[in-house]
Design a protein that fits this description.
Blueprint (H helix, E strand, L loop, with lengths): L9 E3 L15 E4 L5 E7 L5 E7 L10 E9 L7 E9 L9 E2 L3 E7 L7 E4 L2 E2 L9 E5 L4 H4 L2 E3 L5 E4 L10 E10 L4 E11 L18 E4 L23 E2 L5 H7 L7 H5 L2 E2 L6 E3 L15 E4 L2 E3 L9 E2 L23 E2 L13
């Protein structure tokens, strides 16, 4: 009997046979007590009683997949004689249960240098149905193409593995949905959250925003100082702390502030400390145009001093100030003095209170 069968359904049973005649052959039937089934006797035109099994309540294969009943036939003689037969009812499955994930959210933390094909997380869903109705397969839900380029899920095992390189600097967290579907078409979803941990795979880099733009042409061998102004540059690197100087002061600048001289830029543009402020050489490019003469010209197009940005908020010396004063304190009395400091320079570091 299918578990989708509605209560009230009737199932005819085989009748018993008795070789006696008269009242000795009159048969009646009894069924062992069971809340799911009852017995009804349907009298045929010939006077024989046909036993029928009647379904009294809905079946649920996941709760009980079979029933063992005993049907007894009794004759009308004295003494009464009887015979029995066993009835086994097997409940066939309906796809009435969707898959269920073991978690609603699966979390994982992996390093950004994880090789392709590495296991990230495994999801798991079970389906209470039987056969193909209980067979679960896994797939991505509606996810961006970027996720599909980095991760893959095994449809049978539920294992999520990497298929592309992860980059913490590009994205440090991925959240996407996975679907579990059974053989009958029912499905359910879960969420996967993958945190990418940082590895030391990038050289230091400075990104600075300076005001304006300068361009100072230099002739080869000129050996003069380039005055620094405000400039704008992105993705620049720090070559030294100081300002550009004349060739004669090169060694002094190197010993005071410059990094090792292996960089050819250091040979072209010596720097020195000055005025307690730091300066940087920003992405210098030598653009020499060689003509038919003895030499050419070069230009420094990005050279600027490091200007402090307003990237620090004021910080109070205490998170909370508590003061007790009498109710008759004179007007204008100082109750408490609060203090805050700002690590920025100049106007950016001046603190006002309100």
């Amino acid at each position: 009997i299918g578990e989708w069968t509605l209560p009230g359904a009737r199932f005819p049973l085989e009748t018993a046979q008795d070789s006696d005649v008269g009242t000795n052959s009159l048969l009646t039937y009894q069924l062992t007590s069971n809340p799911s089934f009852s017995l009804d006797l349907n009298e045929n035109p010939g006077g024989k009683r046909q036993p029928e099994l009647v379904l009294e309540k809905a079946l649920d294969r996941e709760k009980q997949s079979s029933f063992e009943l005993v049907l007894t036939a009794l004759d009308g003689g004295d003494p009464v004689r009887s015979g029995t037969v066993q009835i086994r009812v097997n409940v066939t499955d309906a796809n009435d249960n969707p898959p269920v994930f073991s978690k609603s959210v699966y979390e994982a933390r992996v390093a950004e240098n994880l090789p392709a094909g590495s296991l990230v997380v495994r999801v798991w869903a079970v389906d209470a149905d039987a056969g193909t109705n209980g067979r679960v397969s896994y797939s991505f839900g509606n996810v961006p193409d970027g996720v599909l380029a980095l991760f893959a899920v095994d449809s049978e095992s539920g294992e999520v593995r990497t298929v592309g390189p992860l980059d913490f600097e590009e994205k440090s967290k991925y959240i996407f949905g996975l679907e579990a579907r059974d053989g009958g078409g029912l499905n359910t979803h879960c969420k996967v959250q993958i945190d990418i941990t940082d590895e030391n795979d990038n050289a230091p880099e400075i990104t600075i925003l300076l005001r304006g733009q300068i361009s100072s042409p230099l002739s080869h061998g000129q050996g003069r100082a380039v005055s620094l102004g405000s400039a704008r540059c992105l993705q620049c690197r720090q070559e030294a702390a100081g300002a550009a100087v004349d060739r004669e002061e090169r060694e002094e600048a190197r010993s005071a502030a410059a990094p090792p001289a292996a960089d050819p830029l250091d040979r072209l543009f010596p720097v020195r400390l000055g005025g307690g402020r730091s300066a940087i050489v920003l992405s210098l490019r030598n653009r020499a145009a060689r003509g038919g003469g003895d030499g050419g010209t070069s230009s420094v197009q990005e050279l600027g001093s490091l200007v402090g940005a307003n990237d620090n908020a004021p910080v109070f010396s205490q998170a909370e100030y508590t003061v007790r004063v009498p109710e008759d304190v004179p007007v204008g009395s100082v109750l408490v003095t609060v203090t805050a400091t700002d690590a920025d320079e100049g106007l950016n570091g001046q603190v006002k209170y309100s």
